[in-house]
Every structure is written in C-alpha cells, then in structure tokens.
Amino acid sequence: MRDKLLYAILFLKGTEGTTSEDLASFFKNKVNDIEMGLKRINDYLIENSQPFVIKTINNKVRLTLSTDISKELNSLMDKKINIRLSKSTLETLTIIGYKQPITRMNIEKIRGVSSDYAIFKLINYDLIKESGRSNSPGRPRLFATTQKFLEVFDLNSISELPAMTHNFEKKAEETRELFLFDDK
To answer: Do 39 and 112 belong to one domain?
Structure first.
C-alpha cells in the first residue's frame, strides 16, 4: 500500500518533484527505506513498459516520461519537444555547462566571438540562468545551467557530464583558429 501512496505523491508533485528526505519525513521512515520503495516502483514501471520512470534530478525525485515514450511523442506531435540549437549556441551551452558559474566575458574569451545572442537564446530556452554576480570589477553576471538543462540532456546532476580533456581552452583556441576568416 505504501508504494502506491509513494507513487501517487510523485504523480501529484509533477515536474516540481520532491526529495527523498521529505518523503521519509512524510512517511516517518528512513531515507534508505524510501529509496528502496522508489527503486521497487521504478523497476515495476520499467518491467511493465509503463510510460513513466522515476528519476532523481538535482536531488529531486520525480516522475518523468520514459525515453522511448518521449521520442514517440516527439514524432507524433506537431509541436516538437526537442530544442534545436545552432552550433554557436550549443558551443556556448557547452562552455557554460563545464565552466559554470561563468561570466559572459570568460565565455567570449574561450569562444573568441561575442556570445550575447547565444546567451539570450539559452536563457529563453530556460537552459541557462543568471546565477549571481562575480566579485571582479563591475560585478558581471554569472551564468549556470538550469534544471531544464539536466532534463533535456537526461542528467541527474552536472557531475554526469562527460569528462573533458584537461586542455579544453587550448583545444577551443586551436579549433577557432581553423575557422577564422580574414574580413579585410
């Protein structure tokens, strides 16, 4: 019976989700017991090809569409769920993902070009957000990825991003030099 109630709570919480600690407090139980219950429910959902699965994203437990259902819905719906990103916007998002929190000036230092438009688009797509101000002169805005970024890229946390090589800036500089044009 408790698993059904746990499932119902996740359903009611929707995209907001909840923490295992809050669920444990509600049920007056140990976090470990709640996590075992969540695993049982998730295993049942997967084994029975249900359209939802339980995911933990940024320490929030929530019901989300399974990957195969999400792809199917994408192909059936007129309005695409996917976000299309240009190469420059994806490049900017990658830099923010790996270097967050980061200022616009530092993004542009890595890219070698203005990133205002890419940052504007990423904020509009809710993939990045302003995450504070730097202590450097002028107190420029800092940017970081959002909850939606984790959901779109199917990550539980930023630590799941694939490892980057230690010479990321050097590689970015070498790549940028290949595509520079002399506009004189």
So the answer is: no
